[in-house]
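Retro notes, item 3 of 5
We never archived the inputs for the FE2/S2 (inorganic) cluster complex last cycle. Fixing that now. Sequence and ligand:
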Amino acid sequence: MSKTISIDGQAVAFSDGQTIMDAALAAGIYIPHLCHNPEFKPHGSCKLCTVKVNGRNVASCTMPAVEGQEVLSDTGELNAERLVLTQMLFVEGNHLCPGCEKSGNCQLQAVAYYLGMMSPHFNHFYPQREVDASHPDVLLDRNRCIYCELCVRASRDVDGKSVFGLSGRGIGTTLVVNSTSGRLGDTSIAATDKAMQVCPTGALLVKRRGFAVPIGDRIYDHLSIKDHLSIKEVQTGGDHE
Ligand code: SF4
Ligand code: FES
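Structure as it came back at the time:
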């Protein structure tokens, strides 16, 4: 008999080694997340996936599933905390959705809609961040970076290039490019790299593709991020692209 945990009262099967997030995703249960991608080792930085386990707040993407856990996720309290975290991400960077070509395909925007975010609430920091357009096929707009490190992990672990890294701390954190000039044009990154497919925002974009899919026909234009993930799980049986 398989082991189970309970998520919001629903019995969810899991196997040894799975996290609460893994078990939830396999069961088609959406727990909001941004720095997590099932293809990579969890990172646990955005805290959006925080759930309550037996009364304690934990990051579901890093917490192993253990038989008998009572997990609460879709609660007013936790969603209110997720909303604040999301609003902070918006004001810490420069996320101008109406002018961003990732609009409709952006996980940060989709999570904000899912959580019912109607305004950023906090004062904008309007940080000065650099755009790197030095590469012929790839653009890095640091204004939209949320420091999830997915590109760092993908470039290092899949592409074998280690093009990206994080530098600095707190508000001084920045996404750096590993080349002598510090510019993308002097790296071996390619538009087909895994690093170019994992960015949850519009920080990393392939050039000349911005409007290949018109606004209105994009991933989250018709489906919430929750419904999109559930359908994807059913279609792939838990195997993500
Ligand atoms: S560029 Fe994108 S994938 Fe890379 S750290 Fe920033 S938000 Fe994450
Ligand atoms: S998704 Fe778990 S901490 Fe970001």
